[in-house]
Amino acid sequence: MAAHIHVSRWSLSAQGAVPWVTTIARLLLGGVLIAAGWLKIGTPALSVQAVKAYELLPGGAATAVGYGLPILEIVFGALLVLGLLTRFSAVVAGLLMLAFVAGIASAWARGLRIDCGCFGGDGTLAAGQEPAYLTELLRDAGLVLCAAWVAWFPPGRLALDSLLGLSARPDDEEHDLDEENDS
Amino acid sequence: MSKGAREASARERIAAQRAASRKQDQRRRLMIITAVGAVAVAAIGLGSWYAASRNAAEKPVLAQAPATVNADGTLTLGKPGVTGPVVEVYEDFQCPACKALEDSSGSTIKNLAAEGKAKVIYHPITIFPQEPTRSNSIRAASAARCITDGRQWLAFHDKLFQNQPGETVEGFALNDLVSWGEDVGVTAPGFPECVTSQKYAQAQANQSAKVLKNDKLTGTPTIRVNGKDLPNQTAYVPAKLREAVLAAGR
Q: Does any domain span residue A163?
């Protein structure tokens, strides 16, 4: 009996922590996206060049991605930080990160010697610099996990979605609402 | 009305009210989502358009400044009497970032020289230590050294960047280099032989090593205005590059 009470208390406090974890994951993922976009958006030629350095996309597509990616990162980063359209933004950000993971892994596998160009730069390594594929992959994989968490448990605390009543199920009443809808 | 019936109708009323408010709420939610989505899409569209316009290269002027090939393999581009500001362009024909710089800012650099606003010096160097990029670069740059006419040299320079091979393949084949030279108007009888024998390969390697050491380059491309390196955020944005050069001339 005592054990049972303990468990339920633990799960209660864990449930209380979940929205906060979501908030932290949102800020982390959104912050990284905004920084990455901001550092690239001022120099489109380099951003295009960094995409081309992967040698994955044909010229026209690489140019379009080079122009569009920085602002895309900033917009979805801002949505995540604000907690607006949280689940959708997390899914988009997660797919974006997965695409980066695939790109970096493929560059590594093909033996290219490039910089990921994640935070600006033209994708070339400085003289004497070694590629940092593993670090880049681990970082982006961590961000994929953040995105997955946010998509699973949106919108977290301090989210505009809650303020505007956009989150269909305010976090704590989730189950009550379910039951009500079912009856 | 019986008590049961009254209760039933009350319940129905409440249910209807609830359904109505739920519908209203749904409509409101849809409106907000649509509005946020529209703003996000507009921002992404505008941002991309801004990036593209920021990167738009200047139209090249028709009358280019006189160009002189120097003994060390560099090219000086500038109107007679213009001594500054001096814009030095260090680039490797094989380096993709240099091609990107040429694509966005190449015409601005030439235009500034044509307008008498700058004296431009091109330094073609070879920075790659590994193959196949090193040999590609040496072949291209030593072929450029076979051209003595400045105007032809610059056209050949542009042609090399247009035809830049990937970094993992062998490119800049000798016979291609010869025919590109002929395309830009090189008629000197010794030119094909000079290219195919790679007459200046050693000179190019030596010159590169010397420049890398003496001019303290961190990489290519480097744009140096009056001896000071321009940051990439300036060099790669045509309008900012122009502004920086003009400011150095004031």
A: yes
CB contact, 8 Å: A70 with chain B?
yes
pLDDT of A24-79, one tens digit each?
999 999 999 999 999 999 899 999 999 998 989 998 999 999 999 999 999 999 99
Percent of chain B with pLDDT over 90: 82
* DSSP three-state, residue B119: strand
A123 touching B (Cβ < 8 Å): yes
The answer to whether position A183 is within a domain reads no
How many angstroms separate the first and last alpha carbons of chain B? 96
pLDDT at A176: 41
At residue B111, the pLDDT reads 96
What are the distances in angstroms from CA B131 to CA A116, A134, B118, B128, B137? 22, 24, 36, 8, 10
State the fold for domain B67-249: Glutaredoxin (3.40.30)
Q: What is the pLDDT of residues B82-93, one digit of tens each?
A: 998 999 999 999
Is residue A89 pLDDT above 70, yes or no? yes
Of A49, A76, A85, the CB nearest to B33: A85
Q: What's the pTM?
A: 0.81
In order of A124, B179, B183, the CA distances from B150 in angstroms are 30, 18, 15
End-to-end CA distance of chain A: 31
Beta-carbon contacts below 8 Å between A and B: 98
Task: Compute how many other C-beta atoms are within 10 angstroms of the C-beta atom of residue B86.
Answer: 19
Task: Determine the 3-state secondary structure of B156 from DSSP.
Answer: helix
Q: How many CA atoms, within 13 angstroms, populate the side-chain half-sphere of residue B243?
A: 7
Instruction: Examine residue A49 and state whether it is found in any structural domain, yes or no.
Output: yes
Closest CA to A45 of B87, B111, B219, B97: B97
Domain ranges of chain B: 1-54, 67-249
Domains of chain A: total? 1
- pLDDT over threshold 70, residue A9: no
**B100/A41 touch (CB, cutoff 8 Å), yes or no:** no
φ/ψ of B236, rounded to 5, equals -90, 0
SS3 content of chain A, % helix, strand, coil (to 5): 75, 0, 25
User: From CA B102, how far away is CA A67, in angstroms rounded?
Assistant: 18
